[in-house]
Amino acid sequence: MSGLITRIKQFTRSPQGQRTIASARRAAADPRKREQARRLLGRLRGRR
């Protein structure tokens, strides 16, 4: 499990990881995208 955490940390520090994080932050700031994510999570939770 610690190997997975290490790989995630390495990715977040890489240029591609930084772009991904910036993209996720922009999406989280957009009310429409936030609503889409909330609906998706609700559907996923409802399947269990």
Offer a few descriptive terms.
48 residues; mainly alpha
SSE inventory with pairings:
Layout: H1 2-13, H2 15-29, H3 31-46
In short:
The protein is mainly alpha-helical and 48 residues long. The protein has helices at residues 2-13, 15-29, 31-46.
Q: Please tell me how large the radius of gyration is.
A: 14 Å
DSSP helix fraction: over 70%
DSSP strand tally = 0
> Which consecutive residue ranges, at least 5 long each, have pLDDT under 50?
none
Q: What is the number of helical segments per DSSP (H or I, 4+ residues)? A: 3
Using the alpha-carbon principal axes, give the shape: flat
- The chain-level structural class is mainly alpha
Which H/E pattern describes the elements? Answer: HHH
- End-to-end CA span: 25 Å
Q: In percent terms, what proportion of residues is strand? A: under 5%
The major pleated sheet works out as:
none
Mean pLDDT: 92
Structure notes:
Helix 1 crosses helix 2. The chain is flat and about 30 Å long. The protein has three helices and no strands. Helices cover 90% and strands 0% of the residues. The chain is mostly helical and 48 residues long. The two termini are 25 Å apart.
